[in-house]
UniProtKB/TrEMBL annotation:
PROSITE patterns: PROTEIN_KINASE_ATP, PROTEIN_KINASE_DOM. This is Casein kinase I. InterPro entries: CK1_Ser-Thr_kinase, Kinase-like_dom_sf, Prot_kinase_dom, Protein_kinase_ATP_BS. It comes from Stentor coeruleus. One of its GO terms (molecular function) is ATP binding.
């Protein structure tokens, strides 16, 4: 995936810059070439010993319409990757922590805790 800018997924999503990664694979910024809507595109090698992306996509479908739950636009296989395209929600907690010099105020922690409990209760 060295030249992602020309890569089109599912016939309508252009892969942009890398915005994150994890043990499962990489996350890229994507754009719907028809509507210009920005999305997140997750890639996972389809020969992974412990594939997670299909399971993750099914969980999002079950939880759809919940506040803070991304909508799945597409899931499938492209070449050697399992790919999931979903709503781009905003900065991660890690990104926010960097902005706050690696320390959240008590107020921020309480707001985050309230939001997390609401998501779990949903």
């Amino acid at each position: 995936m060295s030249d992602q800018s020309s890569l089109i997924i599912a016939g309508k999503y252009r892969v942009g810059s890398k915005i994150g990664n994890g043990s499962f694979g990489d996350i890229f910024l994507g754009t719907n070439i028809t509507t210009n809507e920005e999305v997140a595109i997750k890639f996972e090698k389809n020969n992974s010993n412990h594939p997670q992306l299909l399971f993750e996509s099914k969980i999002y479908v079950i939880l759809r319409d919940g506040i803070g739950i991304p909508r799945i636009h597409w899931y499938g296989i492209e070449g050697e990757f399992n790919v999931m395209i979903l709503d781009l929600l905003g900065p991660s907690l890690e990104d926010l922590l960097k902005v706050c010099n690696h320390k959240f105020s008590l107020k921020t922690v309480l707001i985050l805790a309230d939001q997390m409990i609401s998501r779990i209760n949903y």
